[in-house]
Input
Amino acid sequence: MDADSEMLDIWNRYYVCSEEEAEARLAQRRQARAEARAIRLRELEKQARENDEQLDRHYDSSSEPVRPVRTSREGRTSSFVSSSSFSSSRRSSEDSTEALDGRDFRHQLQEVEESFRKAMISNAQLDNERTALAYHVDTLKDDMEEMAENYLQVQRDFREKARALDQLIRDFRKLKEENAFLEESLKQRDELIEDHGLVLVGAAELLNGDGDSSSAGSSSRSSPEKLVLVPKAQAAKAALVSQEAAQLLDQAGDGSLDVRLKRFAQEKQELQDEINRLRLDLSEEREKVARMEQISLVHGPQTNGPEMRLMEVQREANKQVDDYKYKLRKAEQENMTLQSSVARLETQVSRFKTTMEEAEKLEDELKADKRKLQREHREALARIEELETANKHLQKRIDKLKSARNALK
Output
C-alpha cells in the first residue's frame, strides 16, 4: 500500500508539472497568435487602403489626360477643317486619316481603362476573399485551441476520476478486509458459545438442543449449540443464557424472551400472594391452637366426651400447621430461586441487548458504507464512460480540423 501511494504521488506530481507546462505553452501560443492576428489585420487594412488609393490615382491619371488630348484633337481637327478649304485634296485626306486615328485611340484607351477597372475590382474581390479565408483560418485555429483546452480539461478530469476510482478501490479492499475480520470474529464468537455450552435465545424461538441439553445425565458440552439468524426486527431481543436458564425459559412455554420473563414475574407474584395467604392461614391456626391450649388448661386433662374430640382437633390442627410450614419454606425457597434466576436473566438480557445493538449498529454502518461505495463506484464508471465518449468525440473533431487545415494549406 505504501509503494502504491508513493507511485501515485509521483504520477500526480508528474501530471501536475506536465499540465502546468502544457498550459504555459498553450497560453504563450495563444498570445503569439493573437498578436500575429492583430498585426495581420493591421497589414490587411493598410494594404486595402493602399490599393484603394492606388486605384484612385490610376483612375485619375488615366481619365484626366484624355480630355486635353481630345480637346487638342478637336482644336486641331477644327483648324484642319478651317484650313481644309484652302489646302489641296491630299492634305484633306491626311487630316481625315488623323481624325480616324484619334477616335480609334480614344476607343482603345477607354477599353484599356475599362479592363484596368475590372482587373482592379477583381483584385479587390480576391483580396477580400483572401482576408475572409485568413479570418476563417484564424477562427478554425481558435476553435482548435479551444478543443485542445477542452481535451486537456477532459484528461485532467479523467485523471481525477481515475485517482478517485483508485481511492474507492482501496477503500473497498479495506472494507472487505474489515468484513472478513468481522466474519472471523463472529465465527470465533460462535465457537466460544459452543465451547461454553451457552444457548442463544432469540425473539421467535429457543435456539438450543431439544433433547440432549435438557436430559439429566448429559453434560453441558454433549450438545453443542448452533447459531441461527434471528429476524432483524427482533434481533435486539436475543440473548445468550446458560443451560439451566434455557431449561427454565423452556418450562415457561413458547413466546419471546420478554413474554417468558413476564410469565416468570407473574408466577412470582402469584407465589408471593400464596405465601401471604399461607401466612395468614398459619396465623389463624396458631390462634386456634392457642385458644385450644387455653381451653385444655382451664378444664384440665380429661379424655372423655368433648375433650377427646378437642384433642383430636388440636392434633389435626398441628398437623396442618406443620404442612403449611413446610409448604411455606418450600414456596420461599422457590421464590428465592426464581428471584435469583430472574435477576440473572435480566442482567444477561440487558448485557446481550447492548451487545446486539452495538453489533447491529456496526452492521448497519458497514452496509451503508458498502452501498455508498458501490454507488460511487457505479457513478465513477459512468463518468469514465462519458469522459471516454467525449474524448473520442473531441479526437474526431480535432482530426477533422487537422484535415481541413491540411486541405487549406
In short: The domain at 196-377 is CATH 1.10.287 (Helix Hairpins). Strands lie at 199-201, 206-207, 239-241. The chain has two domains: 2-160, 196-377. The chain is about 85% helix and 0% strand.
